[in-house]
Automatic annotation (TrEMBL):
Organism, scientific name: Nocardia jinanensis
GO MF annotation, one: oxidoreductase activity, acting on the aldehyde or oxo group of donors, NAD or NADP as acceptor
Superkingdom of origin: Bacteria
Active site: 254
Record-linked Pfam families: Aldedh
Record InterPro entries: Ald_DH/histidinol_DH, Ald_DH_C, Ald_DH_CS_GLU, Ald_DH_N, Aldehyde_DH_dom
Family under the similarity heading: Belongs to the aldehyde dehydrogenase family.
Keyword Oxidoreductase: yes
Keywords assigned: Oxidoreductase
Protein name: Aldehyde dehydrogenase
Leader sequence residues: none
Amino acid sequence: MTSIDYRELYIDGGWRTPATGTTITVHSPTTEQPIGSVPAAAPQDIDRAVGAARAAFDDPRGWSTWHPKERAEALERFATELESRSAETALRVSLQNGMPIWLAEQFEGGFPAVLLRYFAQLMIDTPEVDERAGMLGGTARITRHPIGVVGAVVPWNVPQAISFLKLAPALAAGCTVVLKPAEETVLDAFLMAEAAEAAGLPAGVLNVVPGGRDIGAYLVEHPGVDKVSFTGSTAAGRKIAETCGRLLRPVTLELGGKSAAILLDDVDLDASLESLFGVTFLNNGQICWLNTRVLAPRSRYEQVVDALTDLARSLKIGDPLDPATKIGPLVSARQRERVESYIAQGRREGARLTTGGRRPAGFDSGYFMEPTIFADLDNSATVAREEIFGPVLSVIPFTDEDEAIAIANDSDYGLGGSVWSSDVERAANLAARVQSGTIGVNHYTNDPVAPFGGIKSSGMGRELGPEGLHTFQHIRTVYLPPAV
Ligand code: NAD
C-alpha cells in the first residue's frame, strides 16, 4: 500500500508551506506500520490559520454576510465533493483508527454530507427575524448572527462525523473555522480539505491545522478565536473550560460517558441482540455514548449474562478493512494498555470475567482486544464507574425499576443510554427518569434533527438540531418603540 503523505497545510484557501519541518507520522493500528504523514502545525501556522479565518469572517462582503441560500449552494458543492471521496474517506479512517469499514462507510463516508445539507436547509427555513409584541409597549425584534471564528478540536474515534457536528452548523451559520484534528487521524482531515478546496469554499472559511494537545491548547486560547467547540476526554474538557472561563469565551464540550442500557424483565433478548451490539461494542468500544453498563433484572440476570457472553464470543475480530469484521484493533498501543489495566482492576476487585479479557490469539500485529464482559459486580466497581473506551461491559443486576434508575443515575456522567422492553411506552416512561442528555428505546441513533450532548462530566452544550446551530450564533434584541 502506498504511503499517503502531505507536505503542506490547508490554510486560507490553499496549500501553504508549514512554519517548521516537524511531521506527524500516522501508524496503522492493524499492522503497526506507518501509513502516511502530514506536517505538524506550529503556533505560527495556527496564527496564520486564525488570521485567515478572522479576515474571512470580517470581510464586509464575505461568507458571514452571505444570504443562507448562497452559503447553502457552497455547502452543497462541499457535500458533493465529500461524497465523491466518501469511499476514500472511509478507507483512510479505517486504516488509521481501526474502525470496521462497514461502519466507516456509514459514519465517516456518509454522514458529513447529510449534516451539511441538513444545517444549510435549516438556516434557510429559519425565519431571519423573530418579532415579539412587548408586554411594556413596543416590539422586540430578535435576530441571530454568526458568532465569529470557531476553534474546533476533535478526537480520533469518529473523526469525520464529529468534525461535521461542528463544521456543518458553524459554516451554515456564517462562521469561519479553524479545525484541529487529533494526531491519530489526520489523513481523512486532509482529504476533507481537498474537498473544501475543490468545492471552492472562499479562502479562510475552513482551515485545517493538525497537532497534539499543546497546539490544541494554543488554538483554544488564541485571541482571534470567538468560540470553541471541543469533543474529547473529560480531563481535556475541564482544562479547556478553565481557559474559556477565564476568557469568557463561549464553549461547547462533548466529553466522556459511562451510559447504561436498562433491560426490563419483558425484553425480547433474541430480537434485541443485534441492536444491543450497536450500543455496546460498536467501533471496538470507542464511542463516547456507548452503553458500557448493562443493567439486568435479577430474575433474568444469568440469561442476560449468557446472551451477552455468546454475543461477545460471536463477534468476528480481524482486519477492519474486511467487511465481515465486527471488532477491529484499538487505536493505539497506549489505548490497549489502558483497557488492559482496567481489565486487571476489574479482576482485582473480584468481578467475574465471563469472556474476553485477553489479546486474541492468532494475530502477529495489531492492538486487538477480545470483547470482554464482567458479571457479578455492582455499580461501585471501578470498571462500572470510569470510562474505559474499549470493548468492555459490566453487567449489573437490579431488583426493580426504581433500583435500575438509581443505578443508571449513580454516575459522574450523563451522555447516552437505552431502555429495552417489549412495551415501548413503559420503556419510554422509564427512559424519561434517566439523568442523561440522550437516551434510546430499543435502539440508539443520533438523528440530525435532535440535540445531542451530555450533562454532568459528559459536558455542556448541544450539537445537532436547531440547538446545535444556535451555539454558533449570537442573539441581538432591538427594542422598537410603541407605534404612535
Ligand atoms: P483527548 O481529550 O485526549 O483528545 C481529544 C482532542 O483534544 C485531540 O485533538 C487532542 O489533541 C486535543 N486536546 C487534548 N488535550 C487538549 C487541551 N488541553 N487543549 C486543547 N486540545 C486538547 O481525547 P481522546 O483520547 O483523543 O478521545 C477519547 C475521548 O473523547 C473519550 O473520553 C470520549 O468519550 C471522548 N469523546 C466524546 C464524544 C462526545 O460527543 N461526547 C465523542 C467522541 C469522543
